[in-house]
Amino acid sequence: RFPWDHDNCESVLLQLGVPAAGGIGPHQNIVAFNTLCTHMGWPLANDQLNAKVGMAGPCSGHWTTFDLTRYGMVVSGHATQSLPQIVLRLDGDDILASGVLGLMYGFHDNRVKPSE
């Protein structure tokens, strides 16, 4: 879960079968995305994530499909915003999440709040 330990922060780390925009690793094919559809927040199940071709969906709620090779952009369906991509970076052999591209469903702000 990133950036917070919250149900709407469910994300998935994928190694796609093709290079992807924002992908890391030697083949630029490792990506992560928040798994809630941006239309109405329906969760995308593992069987709706096709890493081989880099697609997510269709969402079981309203049939939106997302292209994971192009920053999670909408291919078809009711959503008007891309699936939020988790920004990844490599630190040696470790994969670290460092930000979010796009607004996650159910939040008005993705920024991590400073600890008090």
Structure description:
With 116 residues, this protein is an all-beta fold. 0% of the residues lie in helices and 31% in strands. It contains no helices and eight strands. Strands 1-2-7-8 form a four-stranded antiparallel β-sheet, with no helix packed on it. It has a four-stranded antiparallel β-sheet with strand order 3-4-5-6, with no helix packed on it. β7 and β8 form a beta hairpin. The two termini are 21 Å apart. The mean pLDDT is 90.
What is the fold's blueprint, element by element?
Layout: E1 11-15, E2 30-34, E3 49-50, E4 55-56, E5 65-67, E6 73-76, E7 85-91, E8 94-101
Antiparallel strand pairs: 1-2, 2-7, 3-4, 4-5, 5-6, 7-8
Spell out the helices and strands N to C: EEEEEEEE
Distance between the termini: 21 Å
The assigned structural class equals mainly beta
**Count of beta strands:** 8
Count every helix, treating DSSP H or I runs of 4 or more residues as helices. Answer: 0
Biggest β-sheet description: 4 strands, antiparallel
Helix content: under 10%
Which descriptor suits the 3D outline?
globular
Strand order of the largest sheet: 1-2-7-8
- What does the average pLDDT come to? 90
Q: How much of the sequence is in beta strands?
A: 25-35%
Q: What radius of gyration results from the CA coordinates? A: 14 Å
Poorly predicted tracts of residues: none
